[in-house]
Every structure is written in C-alpha cells, then in structure tokens.
Design goal:
This protein is of the alpha/beta class and 428 residues long. It contains 15 helices and 10 strands. The structure holds zinc ion (ZN).
Length: 428
C-alpha cells in the first residue's frame, strides 16, 4: 500500500539542508574525524538550523578486536550520537544513517540501533554502474531496492530516503526512463524522499533543473540533490536542481559538506550553498530557504572543522576564506571604503566572523596524554567547566587524545566531555 508522502513540510515548497560531512565528507582522501569531533560537528550543525545530518554507516562491519587506537569505530559513533540526541545535546537535527539498498543492511541497522529512525538507502541506477559495478539487471536493482524499502517500513523507520547513485547518467527522458521507473517503485514501496545523485558532477545547471523538474512532476515526492564537484559546478547544480524541484511544487533538500570536503573534488559546499540561496540574483527575494538557518554560525563551523581535519580553508573560499573581504586593487578598495555594498554582496557580520584580534583567543586548548590531573583541573576551571568527577574527566580526556589527530582541544569538545561523560565514554 502506498504511504502518504508530504510534498512539502511548510506553508510552501522550500529548500532544506542535509549535511553529509560526517558520511561523505570523511570519505575525502586521507581524512579522519574522531567520534567526539563528529559529535561536535552535529551539535554545530544543529545550532546552525540544519535539517538533517547524515552521520554514519549503521550497517558497518563489526570487528571483534577493540583497541584504544581504533576509537573511530562506527558503532561508537552511531550509538554515542543517538544517545547525545536523547539527552538534549542535539535537540533539533535529524540523525540519518546511510546504508546500501539491501534488506540485510536495513535489518542490521534496526537490530543494532533501536533509536535510529531515519535511513537513506543507496544503489546505483546508471547503465554503466549496473552493468560494470553491480553486475545485475535493471529489474534486479529495482526488486532489491523495493524489498529493502518495504523492510525499512515494516521495521518502523520513520523517514526513508532512496538514493539513485549516478542518477545524472541514468536513462531518464522518454518512454523508457529508468530513473522515473526506479523512483516510482521507491515511492510505491514506501519511500518518503528521492535522492538525485550527480555522483560524478556530470550535470550542467540546465540539465539538472530540467531533469529534476520532470522527475518530480512525474513522481510527486520531495527531492534531495547530491552533487559532486568534479567539473566545478556542485553548488550551482545543487541550487538549480533544487529550483527544479520547487518548479514541480515539492520540497528540495540539498546535500552539503563543510568546506566542500568529499571524495575527489568534493561535494557542494555548505556555506557557499547558503550564500547562493540568500544573496544570488533573484533568489534573495524568493524566501525559499528553510527559515531556521542561522548563517551566523558559518565562521564557527568552518573554522572548527578545518582545525580538526588539519585542512586549512583556502584563502579564496567564498564567505569564510581569508580573502573573502580583502580588496587589493585601488579602484576596488576605494569603492569598498565609500560603501561596502559597492563590492560586497554580504558582510563578515552575516557569517559571524569576529574581528581579527578576537579570533581564536582561548579557543584552542592543548591537553596531552601526559598533562596530568592538576593541569587538566586548571584548564577546566579556567574555562568555567564543572565535571561530576575529576578522575573520570582526566580519564576521558587522555583517552580521547588517541582518537584525535593532535592534542589540541576545542572549547566545545571540553564542554562535551565535561557535560556528557557517559555519552563520550560510549564514543571512545
Ligand atoms: Zn557523494
């Protein structure tokens, strides 16, 4: 039986953000995030008003062997974050897990994590990937996906997204449209949303808007846009694809990553997508962005994530790069001084960027594995943090050093350890 799908959540179709930093972002070459860092990222996304975080792989492989060095294990990440949601650290954001569109992954996720209520089920839909990667028939792909979606419904998952990997290279238009057939089957099986993945960054702004509009008109369900940046168009394609969904009167959900992290050339950058939706020609007046979004969190979330990944923000990154508000040429500088609006669509205050002299003061705190009880006690006191038991806090801090790339703590990490020791212990 077909489930009732809400075409839009609010008073009219809007664009919501699903951040995938903790899933797709960490798939960047040589990138690693410790579990407490992922939790802080979820927390900052929540404060920023982001709708949903794709926070991991609930059907991950299990390992028998556990060592202090293996603190990035996925079980700790998933259960720790779900628990943090229960105790109020992540009050609004939806936590959703990524699985393959097979019943076994859905069943595993349910069995392991009773509190996990949101899943995205993913499978490739392009000819080349069906033939050369999955080695199956188109019918087998649809059968496997629909069975998995039905299982997810039977097991009580609240929101089920179905992802078409490589959607942009999937047969789409005309009588033989495989993408439409696939999406309709997903909806009939009980999916709530459809994720259009431009996995190789192959679309143009024109092609994606047209394809998504036609798909949404036919299928009548909200569409997610998941765009990669191989041809440099991830942000533009995400925005145009989302407008295509709005053209068809359904909600759009743009997938982003912080600082454009992600496989190869990365995903659509979170802050740039928000800037485009707020300040682009024609869009600023349209009022189509999720009203809960707080762009003033941009600076904080980008600098935190850059710190913990050890990847500097490029100077020319929109909004938060060092040069975003620097004017070199005489004519530009003169114009900017007379009125910033001559050369700026938005100001540093829109992104919550503090004056240079106030940046980083007291933010970064070094705690090594040999810091000792007194040193740690002093650091906690001087940052006005109280803990329920100092020995426990010392234990958690020194052990979490192993999972981080360095011994430098951010104030939000110390707060997390001080206020939620039980959940932090779960994550180590
Ligand atoms: Zn991706």
């Amino acid at each position: 039986m077909e489930k009732k799908v809400n075409l839009y959540r609010g008073d009219k179709p809007r664009i919501y953000i699903i951040d995938v930093t903790n899933r797709d972002g960490v798939q960047s070459y040589k990138m690693h995030l410790a579990n407490i860092e992922k939790a802080v990222i979820n927390h900052l996304l929540d404060e920023m008003g982001i709708y949903q975080s794709e926070f991991g792989f609930p059907a991950h492989q299990e390992y028998e062997y556990k060592s202090p060095m293996n603190t990035h294990f996925e079980r700790q990440n998933i259960s720790g974050n779900l628990d943090l949601q229960k105790v109020g650290y992540l009050p609004s954001i939806i936590l959703e897990g990524w699985v393959r569109a097979i019943a076994d992954d859905v069943e595993k996720s349910h069995k392991r994590y009773k509190d996990l209520k949101h899943l995205n089920l993913s499978v490739s839909t392009s000819d080349i990937m069906i033939r050369e990667k999955l080695r199956k028939s188109e019918k087998e792909i649809i059968d496997g996906m629909t069975y998995a979606v039905k299982r997810a419904n039977e097991l009580g998952f609240e929101k089920i997204g179905v992802n078409a990997e490589d959607a942009s290279r999937t047969r789409h238009f005309g009588d033989q449209s495989y993408l439409e057939e696939f999406a309709l089957a997903a909806k009939e099986a009980g999916a709530d949303r459809f994720r259009y993945c431009d996995t190789l960054g192959y679309d143009t702004t024109f092609s994606i808007r047209e394809r998504v509009r036609r798909l949404a008109e036919k299928v009548k369900m909200p569409i997610e846009l998941h765009c990669h940046n191989d041809l440099g168009s991830a942000v533009a394609n995400s925005v145009e694809g989302a407008l295509g969904a709005l053209d068809a009167d359904v909600d759009a959900y743009i997938n982003t990553t912080i600082n454009t992290y992600g496989e190869r050339a990365g995903n659509a950058d979170l802050v740039t997508v928000l800037l485009a939706l707020k300040f682009s020609s024609g869009l600023s007046e349209m009022d189509i962005l999720d009203p809960r979004i707080n762009l003033k969190m941009a600076w904080r979330i980008c600098t935190y994530t850059s710190d913990v990944t050890g990847r500097p923000i490029p100077p020319n990154q929109p909004g938060v790069g060092d040069n975003a508000f620097s004017h070199e040429s005489g004519i530009h500088a003169d114009g900017q001084l007379k009125n910033p609006k001559n050369y700026e669509l938005y100001g540093p205050e829109d992104l919550g960027i503090p004056p240079k002299e106030e940046r980083e003061l007291g933010r970064r705190i070094s705690i090594g594995e040999f810091s000792g009880r007194h040193g740690i006690e002093h650091i906690l006191n001087s940052n006005n943090l109280t803990v329920r038991n100092i020995d426990e806090a010392v234990d958690l801090l020194t052990r979490s050093v192993y999972s981080k790339q360095d011994e430098v703590y951010d104030l939000d990490e110390l707060k997390l350890i001080a206020e939620y020791p039980d959940q932090v212990r779960l994550m180590l």
